[in-house]
Protein 1
Amino acid sequence: MILGVLNQKGGVGKTTVCLNLAAFYARAGMRVLVVDADPQASALAWSNAREAPPLFPVIGIVTPLLHRKLPDIAADYDITLIDGAPRASVLGRAAILASDLVLIPVQPSPFDVWATDKTEELVREARQFKKNLRAVFAVNRKIVNTAIGRDVTAALADAPFPLLSTALCQRVIYAESAAKGLSVIEADEHSEAAREIAFLAGAVLANTERLAAEPQVGRLQEIGQADRRRCLDQSGPRGDGCPVAGREKTDRPLHARRRYRSAHPHENRMRPAGQKDVGRAARHSGAGISGSVIGHRCECPLST
């Protein structure tokens, strides 16, 4: 299976997401390959900074013919991850065509949500040639306990692709581990960041079909489903509001379209004409895996 981590907007954390997912899959016993398709070669730089034995190989393939060259190379691995290039339509198209599933990291800001239009357009174009191509959004660098972190879920409610229910939060450990050529699961496997990566990895695999029979995938899905059941069984004060469990409650009506809504008055801005419509609030429908439950407190990454 080939997973493309792509977004035409730069600075959304594609390389960080790609490498940490790859590390988790490798630690789970899967044969993993990372393809650096970005001319900036950030994934290769991370690999060169690493002193520990590599968990997986990282190779650079920056070419508009990636979709033709990669399938034969990826055949020797359980999962291949592409660290895609931003602002390069030709390279972006090739990476999308090479992928079975496109993971689109999005930061919780109006500018990042509006900028998803171009990536969505490229995926729609690729589907004309690759009918089974799938795409999902994932929130990255979410700032906990902030309205802007929560509002991105509503802003993507009208998007053409589902939003995974597990978010990656803004944490120092991502930068600290990257400087040493490590993943967060290696730096501190008991950290909140490692837990979020684990849930995101399971959520990604839950949206694939070709690896459904793999034992590693089965184990991840069992862990995720067990945790989801715990979230559904919650009777605590925050259990009913867990969006991962599919029980998010809201009495807010859908807002006027073409507006990204935030609880902060200075963040409410009309969208430029012609950009994709977004709604204010809607039931979260991402197919993901929940966070852990401690006592009666729901600790899922999107419940803040």
Protein 2
Amino acid sequence: METPQPRRSGPPGAPGDGPGPRARERAGDPRRNPAASGAGGSAGLAGSLAPTGIVTHAACLEHYAGPGHPECPERLTAVLRALGAETEAGPPDAECPAGTVWLQAPRADLAAIEAVHSTRLAPAIQAACLGGRALLDDGDTYVCSESYTAALHAVGGTLAAVEHVLAGTWKSAFVAVRPPGHHAEESAAMGFCLFNNVAVAARALRARGVERVAIVDFDVHHGNGTQHLFERDPTIFYGSQHQYPHYPGTGAASERGLGPGEGTTLNCPLPAGSGDREWLEALEGRLLRELEQFRPQFLLISAGFDAHRQDPLSGTRVTTEGFREMSRSLVDFARSHCGGRVVSVLEGGYHLSALAASARVHVEQLLRAV
């Protein structure tokens, strides 16, 4: 996959790359009402965004799981507005928020996806999408005709961010895409996730010669797919803090990896009702301390903001300030151990204003990666 060059101003996508009318109708078109979300603009971020790339694509708004589904296009619109975007796909006409580098996510090649997933998965998802809206699992992972393309851009955007950070073009990046990825297993879509975006990026980093890659996942739901994909791999560390017991039922503290990968999986399960203090203690007091022994050269973050106390899909009590502090700790770790090289990828978060505010403070901390 050839990494596209970032744009600082002007139209961010090629002709025909913009959001379709269905996405604009559902999510609201910020070009008509930029302040509609109430998430804020670029004030407070200006002047400090230079080292951080923000990767997105309007196609990610076209994935639609049906009316009332929590994994909705409005999630991405809220995040992008919170980061100062004037449209669904980033600033189109004026200069980007000062210092920001925005990049349109390319489509991923199937070869990159199949380095992690079964060769049968992508054709099965594509066929389901071509047939119209369908249910991919026995839960609530629905797709529509545009979902396959959205998923390719979600993976491709993650890979592009990794390439820029690995090359030194950026020190850090936030990949604002959907559908999310950390529940996707080797051979199955699951839990709103089609392809495992972070897992594909981790495998690509290894192929590029990075010897040790760390993935930290703070989504309220355990990333079963990411754990299972790497639980036998001693070169990729997966650490998760999540509500437990909770969906998908995996992520017990006893799950430490298998065979040669034993010890490079670490789960920090937290009970319903836990808040900022407990989540920060799990991160700093256990996960990052153990990660120091692994000595990663690159940090990937599965950034789910659904542990927020306002989120409808969790029973935990993390605040926006709690996400700021966790993000600060992760960036400090990357600065000390990974040369500041960190790429964060959006996972969950289903209360729109809480998601927007939490993503904003997260990106504010990513700017400190240099």
